[in-house]
Amino acid sequence: MTVQSLTVRSTTLDVMWADGAISQFPTIWLRDNCPSGLHPETQERMLDLLALEDEPELISAEINENIVDLKYDDGHISYMPVALLSTHRPGQREFDAGDVPANLWRGDLGKVGVPRHTAAPVLSEDSALNAWMMDTASLGLAIVENLDDRVEAGVEIAQRIGFLRQTNFGTTFEVINKPDPNNLAYTSVALPLHTDLPNQEVPPGYQFLHCLANEATGGGSLFADGFAMAEDLRLEDPEAFRLLCEVSIPFRFHDGDADIRVHRPVITLGAGGEVIEIRYNAHLAGIFDMPTEIMPAYYRAYRAYMAKTRDAKYRVELKLKAGEMVVFDNRRVLHGRDSFDPSTGFRHLHGCYVDRGEFFSRLRLLASNG
Amino acid sequence: MTVQSLTVRSTTLDVMWADGAISQFPTIWLRDNCPSGLHPETQERMLDLLALEDEPELISAEINENIVDLKYDDGHISYMPVALLSTHRPGQREFDAGDVPANLWRGDLGKVGVPRHTAAPVLSEDSALNAWMMDTASLGLAIVENLDDRVEAGVEIAQRIGFLRQTNFGTTFEVINKPDPNNLAYTSVALPLHTDLPNQEVPPGYQFLHCLANEATGGGSLFADGFAMAEDLRLEDPEAFRLLCEVSIPFRFHDGDADIRVHRPVITLGAGGEVIEIRYNAHLAGIFDMPTEIMPAYYRAYRAYMAKTRDAKYRVELKLKAGEMVVFDNRRVLHGRDSFDPSTGFRHLHGCYVDRGEFFSRLRLLASNG
User: What is the structure's pLDDT at A128?
Assistant: First the structure.
């Protein structure tokens, strides 16, 4: 965007852009962001903001090609690239390739089909990696297929994004029925829809479940978009939605090696009021401890959300085959499974997590190199 | 606490305790928490809350020794331990050994002395581990001394608490001056007080800096309690405090392998209005992007907090010796260092992080086994 005119005012520089829009840059901002204040090697800020006057005064602003020359009353001169001003207009967030809008879905995604991507190109080509990650970011759910028949094959794909998130269950985990289980996932019973580890300050971000065998009768996988269920509840029952956003409930996991607890709401909203996180796990929810006065209303709200997790309208069902890996945003998409009969065959999923931070970092790097 | 009387009401059971206090337990809560609803092996909840009526009805409540027998109109009978009712009164949070109150400090801590603990007992005795962790939790700062002269000695102590937090800098890091640095920590320049990695969704919790050598001239360490500075600002300039709590600013770290960004406020408050987190790192703060209208006031607020980080009143200075490790809550205590002259001697710190989740889990386990 080119500059149409510059006006020096007492506390701002007003820039009129080619399209007629006006941005007002406070003088202290201009001085704070003078390009001379960055470390030449690390690009980190070196300027001592406290060394500036409270109200630095701008004397003149002149445009020379793509640079705005700024002169201050203390003799300082800045050469501000127009591009810097244009991309950093006050009140406007800089473009962020990691800011992928959520595309909400309901059971109809099952008919369209969960997006599928092939393992080999995801492993070797950045464009395929990016395409798969964009589907996963947007829908919160995608499948990678044709994985090698090795336990590490799913982890290798996850590590294309970044390092694994370690939890008290390790960096990887085996979903098989095992003796002396410390978690229902390690039994053969049905698992109702849930998000993993809501008892953590930050529950794991993206979850990877690589199917190595699924020969038992039963054991199908269920998914539902927790954001879509929350948005529907917001429309249908605003008071229930409000309670699920505002009232924290206890979540806890406890065994011999860990006792990890938080109080958090089921629904977390972002700065713009949009749903950014769901914590829902009926068997890790602790004993409700809100005041008596709001408890019955809270139970109604909680059960209203719970009812949606049982509603076929929101569900996608699929039975993973050996060589397939389902990947989903564990802070958005609820997952579950049907019970299975371990006597009819082997069922083995190999799982791991990569957090949102690493995921969006990779998307940004792919966008800037792409 | 023993029960004085029980009163069955239309939607609650009212319990009068021995001290005369009354708790009202909503009937749905009683039914939800019937002890018969837990998985016998995992202790996770098995009850299907949706299978209950909206308003279950209690017919009778009788106390038999330490058990309250509850009869419902649908024939269900619960045997509720009095202890369960007593520890889970509505509106009251269950005791949590991980809930350690912050003991705020200012520069005077330097005179009293930062608490010191000896490595060997911390490694071998749970009571010494607990004592050190309680100091670290309460003050956000403690020193472990007499560590072995091995690079891994500090990590071994950190791992007494739990696994290490991995970041884009690895699971451990070397603070030495090195060529082609991607971060100011890897130079010999002074580092003003800051918290590490405020650009992460959750910055690392507890930081461990094990000093292996500190022979260079300069290179002293600085610490300040970010909570204390925030609380003082709240009293002196409530408007500045409010802006630092409510306005998010961009934080970003970017190199060839990572581009990790968030928008967050400098000060984060907990549910009770108490300060629970500080993000302050002048060289990782991005270009401010709030609207023009609030920007000058925000700069004043930010500079007011910044001025406190320069004020000797808040500072503790110490020069780590080989064999000492400083441990601090990176989401509370700001750290920095004086510049040093690498030609006068070697300076080498070996660092790692353990997150709050693992830290408080360990405190809870120590309390329940102690």
Answer: 98
> What pLDDT does A182 receive?
67
Q: What is the pLDDT of residue B189?
A: 78
Distance from CA of A104 to the nearest CA of B (A): 23
What is the ipTM metric for this complex? 0.93
The answer to whether the Cβ–Cβ distance between A200 and B302 falls below 8 Å is no
B129-178: pLDDT as tens digits = 999 999 999 999 999 999 999 999 999 999 999 999 999 999 999 988 76
For chain B, give the mean pLDDT: 94
Q: Which two tokens stand for residue A229?
A: 């269920």
Mean pLDDT in order along chain A per 10 residues (370 residues): 94 97 97 86 78 92 95 95 95 94 95 96 98 98 98 98 97 80 70 96 98 89 97 98 98 95 97 96 92 97 97 95 98 92 87 98 92
Architecture of domain B3-87: 2-Layer Sandwich (3.30)
For residue A63, the number of C-alpha atoms closer than 13 Å in the C-beta half-sphere is 17
**Does domain A109-369 sit in CATH 3.40.50.720?**
no
Contact A365 B296 (CB under 8 A): no
Which among A46, A96, A303 has CB closest to B49? Answer: A303
Let me know: does B341 contact B108? Beta carbons within 8 Å: no
**Distance, in angstroms, between B107 CA and closest chain A CA?**
21
**Residue B305 is which amino acid?**
Y
Contact B302 A166 (CB under 8 A): no
> Rounded distance, CA A137 to CA B344, Å?
51
Going from N- to C-terminal start, the domains of chain B cover 3-87, 109-369
- For A329, phi then psi, to 5°, come to -80, 105
Q: Which residues pair with B81 in a beta bridge?
A: B67
Q: Which of A89, A211, A232 is nearest to B289 (CA)?
A: A89
Which residues on A lie below 8 Å from B42 (Cβ)? 181-184, 187, 283
Distance, CA of B191 to CA of B181 (rounded, Å): 14
Contact residues for A82 (Cβ-Cβ < 8 A; gap 6+): A1, A2, A3, A63, A66, A67, A68
Which tens digits make up the pLDDT trace of A248-263?
A: 999 999 999 999 999 9
Q: What is the DSSP track for B78-133?
A: EEEEHHHHHHT-TT-PPP-TT-PPP----TTHHHH---EEEHHHHHH-HHHHHHHH
Residue range A291-307, pLDDT digits in tens: 999 999 999 999 999 99
